[in-house]
Write a sequence for this structure.
């Protein structure tokens, strides 16, 4: 749910959604990081709570900080935002290790949560008595739970996968355009998606490509499996992981058959391709809609649509948590803030404001989620699509270096696309780099 981040991955902009006149628009990042210690209390007993995050969590855009102040006049929330999660996380680890400079509430990205749970849990307040973990989709809070039952973080958003596609390009290529028909065409999985791509290529409009990036498809394939880069014992098994093998082979096939434009997502070239209209499909977690609408521009409104993801199990790409360091001056108040921000009503408000999908199941029955549609994407009923996909996301085993492994493999997939690196050479380069990183 961030504009830029790693691990779950991604640079992104969020889509604003409403249940009446829905729009998908970019929301500009504001704020900067701070080295100040956590919240303070003035002479009148008024408290300032600091919340450190990255990219765009949507609380300011949804007006939640102002609303919380109305409910608690003695509490002001100050958000400290770092644009890039890659810059945010090393600083967070440094603060945790030194015990200095921590905010009252800290955001943690899903690609980092396993490492934090395994190595830093003792430094965070246990939220197990504050939140009801059963309120979240089943696998979300398990990701933030230590072996002793300590719950390090409360889930914010998730990234259920869908498929964003250009109806007009599909029509010109002789492919189905109705979202249910598209879903049926790829119902067998990502292998069917490539078959659809081969059909598209036969009659593809000049200068267009079936997909933007094979690495994006790879991430969707891996993310739809319970076993990804680690096993349940915490051992890195990415070399033998069936989902990694499947994703890698499909990515290699897509690159060799020239079904992809070979553009790493969120780069200037990728943005330009969306603006020029040369991309027919994008593997599309919930937050991706805003990125596409922003870069494609008003001229392509109504030409995009959203269908269910290929296969019978959905992928989760992205998501974060809010956690409370024990060292803060106002742990009780910070814990209550986290509980409130991650409650159904507030998660629904954030979805309405910037389009990131709730992890708290209670939000799915609220009108701002259940009835949500996106006019830019031909009035796609995104609230229903994402909620349905969320039900089939498997409980994935996370590892400490998930983000490092994913990013390294993705980089080598980019080399297969852009430099015609052979799959064997690319795989060796990826595994050599990962093995060095793992030690």
């Amino acid at each position: 749910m961030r504009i830029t981040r790693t691990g779950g991955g991604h640079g992104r902009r969020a889509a604003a959604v409403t249940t009446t006149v829905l729009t998908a628009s970019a929301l500009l990042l504001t704020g900067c990081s701070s080295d100040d210690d956590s919240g303070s209390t003035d002479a009148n007993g008024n408290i300032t709570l600091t919340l450190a995050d990255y990219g765009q969590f949507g609380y300011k855009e949804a007006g939640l900080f102002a609303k919380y102040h109305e409910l608690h006049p003695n509490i002001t929330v100050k958000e400290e935002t770092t644009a890039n999660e890659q810059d945010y996380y090393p600083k967070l680890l440094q603060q945790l290790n030194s015990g200095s400079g921590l905010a009252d509430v800290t955001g943690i990205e899903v690609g980092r949560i396993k490492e934090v749970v395994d190595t830093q849990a003792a430094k965070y307040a246990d939220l197990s008595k504050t939140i009801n973990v059963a309120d979240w989709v089943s696998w979300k809070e398990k990701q933030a739970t230590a072996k002793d039952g300590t719950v390090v973080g409360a889930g914010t958003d998730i990234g259920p996968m869908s498929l964003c596609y250009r109806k007009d390009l599909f029509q010109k290529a002789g492919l189905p355009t109705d979202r249910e028909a598209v879903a049926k065409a790829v119902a067998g999985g990502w292998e069917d998606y490539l078959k659809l791509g081969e059909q598209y290529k036969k009659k593809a409009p000049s200068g267009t490509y079936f997909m933007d990036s094979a690495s994006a498809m790879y991430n969707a394939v891996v993310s739809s499996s319970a076993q990804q880069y680690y096993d349940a014992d915490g051992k890195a098994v990415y070399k033998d992981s069936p989902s990694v093998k499947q994703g890698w082979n499909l990515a290699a096939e897509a690159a060799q058959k020239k079904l992809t434009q070979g553009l790493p997502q969120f780069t200037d070239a990728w943005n330009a391709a969306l603006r020029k209209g040369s991309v027919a499909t994008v593997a599309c977690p919930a937050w991706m809609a805003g990125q596409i609408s922003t870069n494609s521009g008003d001229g392509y409104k109504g030409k995009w649509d959203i269908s269910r993801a290929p296969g019978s199990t959905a992928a989760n790409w992205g998501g974060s948590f809010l956690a409370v360091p024990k060292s803060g001056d106002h742990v009780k108040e910070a814990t209550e803030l986290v509980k409130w921000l991650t409650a159904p009503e507030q998660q629904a408000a954030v979805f309405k404001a910037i389009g990131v999908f709730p992890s708290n199941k209670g939000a799915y029955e609220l009108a701002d989620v259940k009835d949500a549609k996106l006019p830019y994407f031909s009035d796609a009923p995104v609230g229903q699509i994402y909620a349905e996909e969320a039900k089939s996301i498997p409980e994935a085993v996370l590892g400490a270096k998930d983000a490092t492994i994913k990013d390294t493999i993705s980089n080598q997939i980019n080399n297969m696309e852009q430099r015609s690196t052979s799959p064997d050479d690319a795989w060796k380069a990826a595994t050599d780099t990962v093995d060095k990183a793992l030690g």
Observations:
- DSSP finds 16 helices and twelve strands in the chain.
- The first helix runs from residue 64 to 71.
- The radius of gyration is 21 Å.
